[in-house]
Amino acid sequence: MLTRWFRKPPPGFDIEQVLDEASALMIRGQHEKACEVVEAALIRAPGNARLHGRRGTLRHAQGDLAGAIESYSTAWRLDPDYAEMPYNIGLAEGASQHAEAAVLAYQEALRIRPEFLEARFNLACVLHENDRLSEACDAYRVVLAQQPDHEDARLGLGLALQEQRRLEEADEQFDALLARNPQHAAANLYRSFSLLVRGDWGAGWDRFAYRWATPEMSRYRRRYAQPEWDGSDPAGLTILVYPEQGFGDMLQFARFATQLASLGANVILEAPGPLVRLLSTLQGVQVVASGAPLPEFHAHIAVMDLARHLGRDNDSIAMGNAYLSADRAQVKRWKERLEGDGRYRVAIAWAGEPRPGQPSAARIDRRRSLRFEQLAPLARLGSVRWISLQLGTPAEQARRGPAVLALTDAASELGDFADTAALIEALDLVIAVDTSVVHLAGALGRPVWVLSRFDGCWRWLLSGSASPWYPSARVYRQESPGDWGSVLERVAADLETIVRLHPGHP
Description:
- The protein is of the alpha/beta class and 506 residues long.
- The protein has helices at residues 15-27, 31-44, 49-61, 65-78, 84-95, 99-112, 117-129, 133-146, 151-163, 167-180, 185-197, 201-208, 215-218, 247-253, 255-262, 276-279, 306-310, 314-317, 328-338, 359-368, 395-400, 417-425, 436-443, 484-501; strands at 238-242, 266-271, 285-289, 299-302, 344-349, 384-388, 407-409, 429-433, 448-452, 473-477.
- Helix content is 49%, strand content 10%.
- Helix 1 packs antiparallel against helix 2 (31-44) and helix 19 (328-338) packs across helix 22.
């Protein structure tokens, strides 16, 4: 029968001393030396499970995940009750993006030791990361039953509930964290999403400001000798507004730069290069490219923080039908190029850009994006000319896969957002998942249909097809997670009606 160490080490051989020495070397960053110590020990005690486990830990630390899994598996085979080994296998499989293998490994660790808290929490996390939300909630709750003050488990449970649109239950978890620590950054941030998605803009923006205290965002916050604008009278001040997060965020919140200018401020809007030409059409705003020398200014503020001072209700976030515009000569050229066949001209973008290096962003992108072949319900609309605005990796799906839609691929001809704006101005409709394309069309006042995932972004609120941000937008929501089929059937039916009502479209 196997013992904890499989067999006793040779006389005079101190396993604990070897392990302590290897640990000390690891702490000092001397991984190669630690490996030598462990390898030498394994020659004398090849059947020792702990030594194989330590070899796995060293391989893991050096990025050799396959080697680590091999060593952990050997240790586990030598000692089937060694729960730390399937747990470590779960860590390595998770780091290798092998989610199902990680789940199975954590479950094995819990079979051996049901009270293994770290294994239960990591199981919850990997289930969560792979959108197995109901199972993740169950696992988080078991962790909390064992350790009610486990903040990460409570935060994870709240987020998993929020992603299932169980907002009241989610808020209970966030509020429990905030009762213990009112300054808890992540709990305040996630609580802000629950407020914003209900249209409670003022309270939502106040909590949204806590994003700057999260590890993900704190490094992006600008710090200047000049103060941050605090919402006081800006008349006569030169205020720098700087970008944050994505292109869509910049397009959506740039409206407040115009409002700030209307209050008497001299507004300098720093913009990423692809947005400079387009944002230069904002009224009363001086646009400077990121990386260029900045003019002198009295105060500064991040673009999304403008909403906390200027966008606290539906009336204050509205900007009419359009606040950006395209170059008229470019629009004319596109119209001349696309006219002639009488078909309704519709642009489409079906996916965001995968972000494998950013797990949380990758999860959102996976839920918001379609595969090109899922657009098949739109193919029956013969009177529509489809123009692709899809960029990045997903565009290859249309080039290399089945020809679900006959596309005019315009994306490859677009250099920046001003180019894309000119094309959109020449079209009848834009249909897109929740990407910057939606915000661009909305900011131009062009008709845009938003394909929104079940746990849609707070920008599109909880229900209804209208948007307080963009009067020209219509929101099509998933009725259940992942159900794009019914969304596209509704889109196809509505588009078919429009085309039928406008025969011989010029």
